[in-house]
Known about the structure:
This protein is mainly alpha-helical. The protein is built from 8 helices and 5 strands. It has helices at 4-16, 25-42, 46-60, 63-70, 78-95, 102-129, 162-165, 176-211; strands at 75-77, 136-139, 144-147, 149-150, 166-167. The strands form 2 sheets. The chain has a 3-stranded antiparallel beta sheet with strand order 1-2-3. It has a two-stranded antiparallel sheet with strand order 4-5. Helix 2 packs antiparallel against helix 3 (46-60), helix 2 runs parallel beside helix 5 (78-95) and helix 5 (78-95) runs antiparallel to helix 6 (102-129). The longest helix is centred in the C-terminal third of the chain and has 36 residues, at 176-211.
Amino acid sequence: MGLLAPLVLGAWLAVAARGCLQCDRQIRSTLESLRTNLVPRQIRDSRLRARAQALLRGMEGGFFRHYATSQFAGMAALSSINALIHHVRLTAAGLERSALTDQALLDTLVAYRHRTTMELKSALTEHQARGWLYYDIFDCTSCRKAKAVCLKQHHCLVDSQARLSLRYRPPAPGPAIARTGVSVVLCMGALLFLALSVAAVTYWRNRQSLGQ
Length: 212
């Protein structure tokens, strides 16, 4: 019992030390084992085997990172991502014992990637839903722990703009094109005001001339 507690604590710390799925060494190792051992052994059709290996190679590499950054802010709540990593470790290890072959195995791998992606989506969505709070997150691109911080609270609560409004670093200066656009609009407004003033004065003088 005395030995079990440190092992359990070590396993938990190992999970907590990782961020998104591609950051976890054990998950990558299990996916590699599926690609190099299970798939060649149980998928005889060369085309199906190539598709299954490409799918697993993507999951080992940048598939989850790309999803997290192209569809979301690339950040996930620490508690949620830890639970997801633990779950994926167990389910990926279960696939190694699969007796399926050929198309059935490929379909299972495709469905597994879809389920895992949806679970990752849930963790990413949860972070964006409460992104204005100060709490621990993991950056899926750098595999590092960070703090969720927004520029202003109301910016993080704008509908459909969570990715654009969440800020995790000091705000960058606005683009030069925006400042140029404002200047052009102001100049055009001033010219229009001047033209209207000249037209009004001219009209008033013409009326006076006609009256005389």
